[in-house]
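Quick question, first post here. What does this chain look like in 3D?
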Amino acid sequence: MPLSSVVTLSGHIVSGLYRNMSEFVRTCAIYLGIAVLVAVVMVAGMPGLRAQAFQMHGALLYALAPDSFGPPPSAIRAGPVAPLVSAISLDAIPGDALPEPGPRANALVSGGLAAGSNAAYSVAPPNTAGSSVALAKVTEPSGPALSLSASQAMTKSGITVKQKEALIQYISRKYLIAVEAATMFVDTAYVVADEVNVDPLLLLSVVATESHFNPYAGGQAGGATGLMQIIFSLHRDKFAKFGRAESMAFNPLTNMRVGALILSDCVRRRGSIPQGLLCYCGASSPTADRGYTEKVLSERRRLALAGAIPLKD
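> Answer (accepted):
Ran it through. Tokens below.
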């Protein structure tokens, strides 16, 4: 091959490598410039965004917490939300924190119930003085003396400590909630269920199906709200008996109490648990509940199996 051809070929190769290398360096410079620009924006803007996020978080916690939970609104502007969070205790709900129930015959308000609709019946919470003060005790650490009523409810139902612990561990593991929170839910379910004469496992299974034990579950304003997904627009007055209705709807204690009364009323009116569940979810027939009844009953069986607790019809 002539020397001139070799020189020409080498020149083309070097020129091609130079162009490719130039394009690569230019592309890297563009992306590096973008990365630097994003970093500068984040460094300049993140402190303000972080402060706004803390303030919004604090405001949300205060808006959702009951009146007796947490510090006054002025604490929201303080920045960190630790005081708001630490003010809400997840210790076991003390039994005597529940407002004293009236006679069971008067706990459920009589009235017509349209078939397949949960909008026609009305359930009145117990009318007692100082219910807000009693509910405030929920935020206090509970000891053996305070949890006596919950223990009595467990004993009355024939539940041993081992069965209770097994039930709590099942709920905690399956629904990814703290053991303390699961204990609160179980204690509350047994105390409230005894007052309104409903199966506590049925109450827990409805909570599991409706909200997966998320007390802040909800959809559109006035719709299904809280642990038991109670239609807030229909039962606002029931929650208002315990304090500020908007807050009490998200209070697990109050939500479970109102839901238990509704569920008990449904079962009593319809004559059986399956029919009562249809009433609770607002279905007119088993084919219209989208599998809701079977989901609740299946979870009830799993709860009973986990705790080795006999089911009651």
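Residues 89-307 form a domain with the Lysozyme fold (CATH 1.10.530).
Residues 66-148 have pLDDT under 50 and may be disordered.
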